[in-house]
Amino acid sequence: MAHIDAGKTTATERILFYTGLTHRMGEVHNGAAVMDWMIQEKERGITITSAATTSYWKYNGQEYKINIIDTPGHVDFTVEVERSLRVLDGAVALFCGVGGVEPQSETVWRQAEKYRVPRIAFINKLDRVGSDFYRVVSEIKSKLKANPAPMQIPFGSEEKFKGVIDLIERKAIVWDDDDETLGLKFEYKDIPGDMVETVEEWREKLVETVCETDDELLERFLADRDSITVEEFMLAARKATISLKIVPVYCGAAFRNKGIQCLLDGIVTFLPSPLDVGSVKGINPFIKKAEERAPDINQPLTALAFKIATDPFVGKLAYLRVYSGVIRSGDLVLNTRVNKKERIARLYQMHANKQNPKEVIEAGDICAIVGFKDIKTGDTLTDPRKPISLESMNFPEPVISIVIEPKTQADIDRLSQALNKLADEDPTFQVKLDEDSGQTIMNGMGELHLEVLIDRIKREFGVECNQGLPQVNYKEALTNTVIHREVFKKQTGGKGRFAEINFEIGPADEDLNGLQFINEIRTGDLPAEFIQAVEKGFRESMFNGPLASYPLDNLKVILKEGVYHPVDSDALTFELAAKIGFRKAAQMTDPVLLEPIMAAEVVTPEEYMGDVISDFNRRRGQVEGMETRAGARIIKAKVPLAEQFGYVTTLRTLTSGRATATMEFSHYEEVHPEIAKEVLERITGKTYLYNHYHHQ
Ligand SMILES: Nc1nc2c(ncn2[C@@H]2O[C@H](COP(=O)(O)OP(=O)(O)O)[C@@H](O)[C@H]2O)c(=O)[nH]1
Ligand SMILES: [Mg+2]
Question: Distance (Å, rounded) from C-alpha 40 to C-alpha 144?
Answer without folding.
Answer: 32
